[in-house]
Specification:
Length: 332
Amino acid sequence: YEFFPYRFGHALWSYVAERWGDEAVGAILKATLAGGVEPAFRRTIGLTLDQLSEQWRDAVQKRYLPDIGARARARAVADELLTEKRSDGTLHLAPALSPDGSQVAYFSEKDFFSVDMYLADGVTGEVKRRILKSGISSNYETYRFINSQANWSPDGKFLAFAAKRGPRDDILIVDVERNKEVKRIEVELSGVTTPSWSPDGTQLVFTGYEGGLSDLYVVNRDGSGLRQLTEDKYADLHPVWSPDGGSIAFATDRGPETDFRTLAFGNFRIALYDLATGSVRVLDRMDNGKNVSPQWSPDGRSLAFVSDRNGVSNVFLYDLDANDVYQLTDFY
């Protein structure tokens, strides 16, 4: 049976529980031990697997087709840049556009076994070259590509990104033109993700992990002056420096629904860290959905971010002057 277990299997069990009750899931699993999969379903819910599949498909279409009809395809408002046909590989992850938009750095397995960073033309998507190497290099085992991305320096000359070396992560700074590592910043932390440059290019802010907790840290580009900004149990992710250098936007689970005594965690919200005072301000209108990956506008008066507050991840804009949120895309 061609059910992909991690996605479709989860959705199928959800449908069974919603229609026949949670106890039906337990009954099916228990009956499977005695008589096999198909008899267990037939005995518990009275349907063969083929009948169940047909009814499940119909229920999914009835629920979601109206939403699909009301929303847009990405290709209706945007051009494809990195694709399997144009750029090779099935993965094109964590793209980072250069400041002038002429180049894009991204992670891909391309035609090899490991996931590496590649550089492509920011307009045509044509792949230029691989940036350094990971899996086949003795220096680094892997780049942090699942929950991290590279970040361009303000002058567009350097890329900063996290890479695993031994038991810890380093921050690498690469001269893009020469495709050469110019600095390796070692930090005494268990993990590092999403390093981001300051507007003047002299510092990097990043999420550091230690003791199972994530906090914001700042370090000079030469590796000196490591400084911890936040020190709490909240998640502090995706930091980006404001254009004026005065604050840092990041994603966090700070909110009324987070309770460490009961290990209850609220939704992710966008917040601002004030570098002068050390205070954290959680933005308004963040009560719903997962709000992540903030990006500043050039004038620093608004923040773009990704939110699934309407059920699907889309791009939103937060106007800092009006304290209001506007939805920019409506993809399905």
